[in-house]
Amino acid sequence: MKYLTVLLVAFFSFIKCTNAQSPQNPTDSNTVADGVFTHVEVEASFEGGEAAWRTYLRKNLNISKVSALVTVPRGKKELRQTIIVKFIVDKEGNISDVSVENPEAEPNCIQEAMRVIRTSPKWIPAKQNGRIVKAIRHQPITFVFER
After folding, report:
1. Nearest to 11 by CA among 124, 143, 145
2. β-strand pairing of 36-37 with 31-32
3. Which of 28, 44, 74, 81 could link 126 by a cystine bridge, Cβ 3.0 to 4.6 Å?
4. pTM of full prediction above 0.85
């Protein structure tokens, strides 16, 4: 089977809110438990920017392994799977709490998308009101497999 992978990287704007305020209490709409921000003024970013992030993904996604495990359904020319990976970038730039927002997607694609995020090098942390904060990121990764 031939395969093709397309990475849709909504790097800086997948979750973005300007003029977000610092939380006054744990139930502030910009935070979840443990002071993790859902909306920030400056998003966490990959060292080197969007181009470096795409390069990292291209080099580190094991497409041949996933391709060997995924079957394009009969009668179809391609199978497209977009995995939305959710993770936290902490104040030191470490990645944690990696999960997917669409667990019904193809399991092998989910596993590979989560693996590549977990093994990512440190990020530049998010900022809110001039302070470095923990923040949630959402990263769509689209796999396209062709017959």
Report:
1. 124
2. antiparallel
3. 44
4. no
